[in-house]
Design goal:
Elements lengths: L2 E5 L2 E2 L2 E2 L1 H10 L4 E7 L7 H6 L4 E5 L2 H5 L3 H14 L3 E5 L2 H14 L3 E9 L6 E6 L4 E5 L7 E4 L14 E4 L32 E5 L9 H11 L2 E4 L1 H5 L20 E5 L5 H4 L7 E6 L12 E4 L2 H16 L1
Helix pairs in contact: 4-5, 6-9
Bound molecules: flavin-adenine dinucleotide (FAD).
The site of flavin-adenine dinucleotide has 28 residues, from helix 7, helix 8, strand 15 and helix 9.
Family: Belongs to the ETF alpha-subunit/FixB family.
GO molecular function: electron transfer activity; flavin adenine dinucleotide binding
Function: The electron transfer flavoprotein serves as a specific electron acceptor for other dehydrogenases. It transfers the electrons to the main respiratory chain via ETF-ubiquinone oxidoreductase (ETF dehydrogenase).
């Protein structure tokens, strides 16, 4: 069976969920071979094996931490040359897309970014993308070279499928461009304790209807009861009620969680663009005519200040 390279996103050996989703998708096309780089690369092996990696190629070198993406591209290219895979899958983060694009240029292949699904096809893997503010769903395949495909978080359910996960050291030699951009400082973001917005399985968002920064605490309380990330509409962000890093939409982040709860959000096209591919959408809005109700699975017509705290309380009580 053909091998499929999967680029591993991890933090000191802790594999992030989008990589486990990639392994699930990779198994539809062939045998996943994972590529883990940097500090803790070998520690990723048990989780990767548990989710179907037949091999884990690892490399560590100061270059991975001290310089921007090129050393990682050098390593992924080394893995590509060692394995001659049927496809290369990379998580669709900003860094992942840059690594994938550079690899595709180097190996003369076509690239598909931001896929939301992947299936095997007679002439190579077929990727589904959601285009034009999710107004269209397209299916495409790479027609030149080895397909390089980046896949958005939450595009597949993580499935365990234990495999050997044999660790092999990857031999990497860095090109002269590898040290072109040096990392000179790092400032860790203050942790909210909540999941990353673009990776969260559940997102609870608030809009202009929340009516003030102080009221976002009720959105946060609902999010925390569900283990969710908090999102915001641009109106709420522009009003200074919530940080721009939490904005969902065309000029914010795109999310595709299992569950998206919109509170006090009208459903403007630019907001939809960032959340329309969510699996289940729930809206709470006091205006029954609000456009958000056109795309919801469940709609609650009501005042969010009544509904949201009750919902939080009910969820808490069911958790016992
Ligand atoms: C180029 C461009 C890019 C944009 N990018 C984005 C983007 O990335 N993300 C984004 O979100 N927007 C974006 N916008 C803005 C977008 O057009 C809307 O203005 C914005 O999404 C509206 O935010 P909102 O739904 O919170 O506010 P509103 O449209 O004002 O809606 C507020 C809603 O809250 C309801 N409400 C009020 N009080 C309550 C209550 N107590 N209980 C329940 N419901 C209540 C109201 O009925 C209303 O439906 C962009 C616009 C442009 C032009």
């Amino acid at each position: 069976m053909a091998e499929v390279l999967v680029y591993v996103d991890h933090v000191d050996g802790a594999v992030r969920k989008p990589t486990l989703e990639l392994l699930t998708l990779a198994r539809r096309i062939g045998e996943p071979v994972a590529v883990a780089l940097g500090a803790g690369a070998e520690a990723t092996a048990p989780a990767l094996a548990e989710h179907g990696a037949v091999k884990v190629l690892t490399a560590d070198a100061p270059e991975f931490a001290d310089y921007l993406v090129v050393p990682k591209v050098d390593a992924l290219q080394a893995a590509y040359e060692a394995v001659s895979p049927a496809a290369v899958l990379v998580p669709s983060s900003a860094e992942g897309k840059e690594i994938a694009a550079r690899l595709a240029v180097r190996i003369g292949s076509g690239i598909i970014t931001d896929a939301v699904d992947l299936e095997a096809g007679d002439e190579g893997p077929v990727a589904t993308q959601s285009a034009f503010a999710a107004s269209f769903t397209t299916k495409s395949r790479v027609s030149k070279g080895t397909p390089v495909i980046t896949v958005k978080p939450n595009s597949a359910a993580v499935e365990a499928a234990p495999a050997a996960g044999t660790v092999e050291a990857l031999s990497v030699s860095f090109g002269e461009l590898a040290t072109g951009t040096k990392v000179v400082a790092r400032t860790p973001r203050e942790s909210t304790g909540r999941p990353e917005l673009t990776e969260a399985a559940i997102v609870v968002s608030g809009g202009r209807g929340v009516n003030g920064a102080e009221n976002f605490s009720i959105i946060e309380a609902l999010a925390d009861s569900l283990g969710a990330a908090v999102g915001a509409s641009r109106a709420a962000v522009d009003a200074g009620w919530y940080p721009h890093s939490n904005q969902v939409g065309q000029t914010g982040k795109s999310v595709s969680p299992q569950l998206y709860i919109a509170s006090g959000i009208s459903g403007a096209i630019q907001h939809r663009a960032g959340m329309q591919t969510s699996k289940t959408i729930v809206a709470i809005n006091k205006d029954a005519e609000a456009p958000i109700f056109e795309l919801v699975d469940y709609g609650i017509v009501g005042d969010l200040f009544d509904v949201v705290p009750q919902l939080t309380q009910e969820i808490q009580s069911r958790k016992g």
